[in-house]
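User: My collaborator sent over this chain with a note saying "see what the structure looks like." That's all I know about it. Can you take a look?
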Amino acid sequence: MNLKSTLTPIVLGCACLSVISCVSEQTTPTPDSYQHPVGAAASTPAHAPYQRPVGKEAEAMNIFIEQMATKHQFDKSELDDWFETVQIKQDILKRISSPSEAMPWYKYRKIFLTEARINAGVQFWRDNASALAAAEQQYGVPAEIITAIIGVETLFGKNTGNHRVIDALSTLAFAYPPRSKFFVSELENFLLLCRDEHIHPTEPLGSYAGAMGLPQFMPSSFRAYAVDFDKDNRRDIWHNNSDVIASIGNYFAKHHWQAGKTIAIPITAKDQNYKSALNKDLKPNLSLTELELLNLTISRQLPLDSKVKLLNFELQQGEELWAALDNFYVITRYNHSPLYAMAVYQLSLSILNKKGSYP
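Assistant: Without extra context I'll predict from the sequence alone. Here is the result:
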């Protein structure tokens, strides 16, 4: 569909929403931006309570309108018309201020490593083989990784969100003081991208945090990384799979994806010495020599100068250990959760393996 006309609302649910909404540590920045639960975009009913901005909310909104008119030469009467329709969504405020408990890996994994999602990934790859191959050639990011990102984020477009982006961002910009600065900036970027892309600002739909399209880009990420891959003069991450695929590839490339390099490998431990090396930082920081000193054994050889991050993932009984390398860290730049990154990695392998068995 031509984005210069009307965006078709995508309001499809995802079977795993009731489970994913429990995630907390997995609620991390959608492309380089805000933390929100993966797959939770469309789980709020359209009839949730809302109100018009009042008091300090209305004052903050009017200041923002004045700034957009002065700083970016928007027409103030047009801005007034757009924001006259804005609704402050109470369900968004409730979700943003009440993070859920963390989900253990053995439960999180079951959400994404399903036969249905793997088969859908194989079909998406087959349907978009040319664009995936071209993006891999240009950006160095494997087709299975790009496919897995789309599968985890929105189940290949079935769960892109049912909140008007202007409502979501306005709610969090004007009625949620703890993160107002961030969301005011995202709202500014949203209006700018709408002007750049000739989209009416009241039409795009997205997650409760304002993430958009199949890749769930925040507006700042859209402006920085979205790609018009088919050269039709539009960067359409809602309906154009070529643009979606290339935009994800570009995002990963800009975050220093290393083509052909290992992502992560399993580790075995001889004792409990490794526990001293576990922490919440995600950047690879251990040498292979340091792994050996911790009595850890990697499952296959790596270059001697490799740096790895030691990660543990909770099982129903015990845990599994992984050495995550730089490319794993790049996946966590898309969403800052090791669980998310491991789900993407393992889904990518499952899709790749299943695709190999298809005729």
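A starting point for your reply to your collaborator: The longest helix spans residues 338-357.
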